[in-house]
């Protein structure tokens, strides 16, 4: 009895790939992805990047195409702003990484002065405690919290953002007392409550405020020249306004921190 010739392995693999592709193609025709509904799902979860990606895949022949275009126009500025925030964060981390070696060298050079500087170091560890409306020196900067507001919604007509809890908008005036330009960033600030929980600034709230009818209000990418004072806002999202919150700023160069009671 004649044996059938064996099929080469590469042919089997090729047939398998073609078969899989064919099945996927048939399934995609039978059960097409509804990019608009998927985009809405991501939109409601505030995942604006994924939402924009799905809205952009809606075809012009789709009945939801016009609605998708409206959503794209609404969230694209937010996504662009979030990307900008991420780039600033990346640059800041790189700067901190580059400065870490310099900081270690300075610490080693000052090791012999440890005893003489013990009083100063203990002051840094304790930090400064303050209240709203007063000015405080932290390193080369002077801080003054002007006012504190709690809001459920933030942003303009096309960038309105609803908090899952509540937004805390803190207005500060910062003055550069040094002889060099200093960069200020929202990530330098955090909130704490009486339970010890810590809250970082809200990128979504910051982007919505930055893209509202009054742009340039936040500290996003802000730089201060010597002896210049600037007013800016930091946005946080917290579960409730019925807590004892404190704004904490740690100077990245001296290690001194300022704690201001928001009540």
Automatic annotation (TrEMBL):
Lineage: Bacteria, Pseudomonadati, Bacteroidota, Flavobacteriia, Flavobacteriales
Keyword Signal: yes
Pfam entry (one): DUF4352
Region (Disordered): 99-122
DUF4352 domain sequence ranges: 132-256
Database matches in InterPro entries: DUF4352 (IPR029051), Immunoprotect_excell_Ig-like (IPR029050)
Compositional bias per record (Basic and acidic residues), positions renumbered to this chain: 103-114
Naturally occurring in which organism (per UniProt): Flavobacterium croceum DSM 17960
Assigned keywords, A-Z: Membrane, Signal, Transmembrane, Transmembrane helix
Protein name stated in the entry: Uncharacterized protein DUF4352
TM segment ranges: 12-31
Presence of the UniProt keyword Hydrolase in the record: no
